[in-house]
Specification:
heterodimer; A: about 140 residues; alpha+beta; Beta-Lactamase; 5-stranded antiparallel sheet; 4 helices; 5 strands; globular; B: about 70 residues; 2 domains; two-stranded antiparallel sheet; 2 helices
Chain lengths: ~140, ~70
């Protein structure tokens, strides 16, 4: 059974089980970084912005080739690969060294996304009522 | 060493070198690609050399540098 965890824990689990990923970032639908192995927050945000650009381009190309929607992609270069998986508004992107085991990396990234629980909704703040002095005195 | 043997040796070495370079180039071309997967299991592969793949691969290279 899948244990539901937050993004930081899912990231920690992913980097522990997958020896192939080098850097990983998890982001929400708005591109906000939920967790990342990239230490510098600015660099992590730029990485996620680039991943979204890659996904947008891939989506357009996929549609022109009859794909109903890009759910995951691998861009393999001589310097390494970029893997992106998106599901229910979230995405996880990872870099690997050249010639990774593609199926394993996709499996680990999908598992990572599935394991992230929805952030618990904050309880609605109770309206603060101030008792008037008149009420208090009565 | 007789000149004929020397010439044969040089030609063999040059041929091996050229073959090795060609093999590496072909292997590199096979390595660089973008694979797109849809939810329904369908997939499209963009090979290096096409303008579409080149654009995506350039973004991917920038990302690899950005990620460090």
């Amino acid at each position: 059974m899948l244990r539901r965890v937050d993004a930081a824990q899912a990231l920690a689990d992913l980097t522990e089980i997958s020896s192939q990923v080098v850097q990983v970032a998890i982001a929400d639908a708005d591109g906000q970084v939920l967790a990342s192995t990239i230490d510098d927050p600015g660099r992590a945000e730029r990485f996620v912005a680039g991943v979204r650009e890659l996904l947008d381009d891939a989506e357009r190309l996929g549609q022109s080739r009859g794909l109903p929607g890009v759910a995951q992609l691998e861009a393999a270069t001589l310097e390494g690969s970029i893997f992106v998986v998106r599901r229910e508004g979230r995405l996880v992107a990872a870099t690997t060294r050249p010639d990774p085991t593609v199926g394993l990396v996709f499996y680990d990234l999908k598992h990572c996304l599935r394991s992230i629980e929805d952030a618990p909704a904050k309880p609605a703040a109770r309206p603060r009522t101030r008792r008037k002095a008149a009420d208090a005195s009565s | 060493m007789p000149p004929r043997k020397l010439l044969t040796g040089v030609m063999l070495a040059a041929g091996s070198l050229a073959g090795s370079v060609l093999y590496r180039r072909r292997a590199a071309r096979r390595l660089e690609r973008v694979d797109l997967y849809a939810d329904d299991g369908s997939m499209a592969s963009l090979a290096d050399g096409s303008p579409d793949a080149d654009r995506l691969l350039n973004v991917a290279r920038d990302l690899l540098i950005a990620a460090g």
